[in-house]
Design brief:
The protein is α+β, with helices and mostly antiparallel strands. The chain is built from three helices and eight strands, in the order βαβββαβαβββ. It has an eight-stranded mixed sheet. The chain binds cobalt (II) ion (CO). Cobalt (II) ion binds next to strand 1 and strand 5.
């Protein structure tokens, strides 16, 4: 079950100048900056109520974010939903005919397991499911 919007992923060309905008322009505070090797990105997190903003800067031309920036420029890249059972969430989506990018979760930013649905199946919104890596919600085993 989806429990809340966890974060919005925002593609940026340069994380330092983007962080400066969110800090000086909006008065938000950057929680931390982290490199996520699996996605070839550098991420910066801001907490806004219960929701986070996840700024994403590519660390390589092969990064999915580099390809996104080339095609679309900077902007909203994905919406991430927290779920109490990531594997079941994926199985249910797949059973409903939704195309998955990943059928198994993998380690993402913020010590979470993540998996994505294909935007062709989600009305144009790249959709992420996520769950804390150390929670029962993140269990990969299928029953
Ligand atoms: Co994300």
């Amino acid at each position: 079950m989806i429990t809340q919007i966890d974060h919005l992923g925002i593609a940026v060309k340069n994380i330092e100048t983007a962080v400066e905008y969110y800090e000086k322009g909006l008065g938000l505070e950057c929680e931390h900056i982290e490199v996520v090797e699996s996605q070839k990105v550098r991420t910066a997190f801001f907490k806004v109520g219960d929701v986070h903003l996840e700024l994403l800067e590519p660390t390589s031309p092969e990064s999915p974010i580099a390809k996104f920036l080339e095609k679309n420029g900077e902007g909203i890249h994905h919406v991430a939903f927290a779920t109490d059972g990531i594997q079941k969430q994926l199985a249910d989506a797949s059973a409903a005919g939704i195309r998955l990018i990943h059928d198994k979760p993998f380690p993402g930013a913020g010590d979470k397991l993540v998996a994505f649905l294909h935007p062709k199946s989600t009305h144009g919104v790249l959709t992420e499911f996520c769950a804390p890596a150390d929670s029962p919600a993140a269990t990969v085993a299928e029953d």
